[in-house]
Amino acid sequence: MIEKTLVIIKPDAVGKNLIGEIIARFEKNGLRVAALKKIKMSKEEAKGFYIVHKDRPFYDSLTDFMSEGPIVVMVLEGDDAISKVRKIMGATNPAQAEEGTIRKDFAENIERNAVHGSDSPQSAQYEIPYFFSTLEIL
Ligand code: CMP
Predict the structure, then answer these.
(1) How far is the CA of 62 from the centre of ligand 1 (A)?
(2) Ligand 1 center to residue 50 CA distance, Å?
(3) Which of 3, 30, 52, 74, by CA, is between 20 and 30 Å from 127?
(4) Cβ atoms within 10 Å, residue 92
(5) 67-119 pLDDT, tens per residue?
(6) Residue 138's Cα: distance from chain center in Å?
(7) Ligand 1 atom closest to Cα of 119?
(8) Which of 111, 130, 131 to mutate to test ligand 1, by most ligand atoms within 8 A of the CB atom?
(9) Helices 81-89 and 19-28: angle between axes, nearest 10 degrees
(10) DSSP string covering the chain, please?
């Protein structure tokens, strides 16, 4: 099924100049960039984006990290895009990520883990409009 998913290249990876490398991995796996921009979130914007994690012990540290520098947000589209993106990214904790995945190659630790991808259609429905209007998704 053709799906759309929200992907973020996080501040650690943007800081290491990995934007092109990471987007290429998605494109080479058949995903298409439907929307893309570079932004910097405020702490409050990061808290809103990760609201589902508000009761987790890492919420404050995660939202500090996600607002420390620029990020690239994008909508990727393709067949089974949500699960495909998660496979290309690898496990949240890079110590458990498979060889050849983005997190295995570029993540620093479980928090500074280079990329984010929506984990379900419900998450994508919240996350895509958080950054993009319908007019910006092509
Ligand atoms: P992401 O896929 O963006 O979803 C939530 C984020 O919280 C996750 O990637 C990590 O950056 C972070 N995260 C998840 N679990 C932990 C943890 N145990 N400790 C610190 N950060 C975490």
Answers:
(1) 7
(2) 10
(3) 30
(4) 15
(5) 999 999 999 999 999 999 999 999 999 999 999 999 999 999 999 999 999 99
(6) 19
(7) 2
(8) 111
(9) 130
(10) -EEEEEEEE-HHHHHTT-HHHHHHHHHHTT-EEEEEEEE---HHHHHHHTGGGTTSTTHHHHHHHHTSS-EEEEEEEEETHHHHHHHHH--SSGGGPPTTSHHHHH--SSSS-SEEE-SSHHHHHHHHHHH--GGG--
d(CA 118, CA 116): 7
**Tokens standing for 94?**
């890079």
**By C-alpha distance, which of 111, 110, 87, 109 is closest to 99?**
87
Mean pLDDT, the chain, whole residue set: 98
- Answer whether 92 contacts ligand 1 (Cβ < 6 A): yes
Which residue's entry shows tokens 């280079």? 114
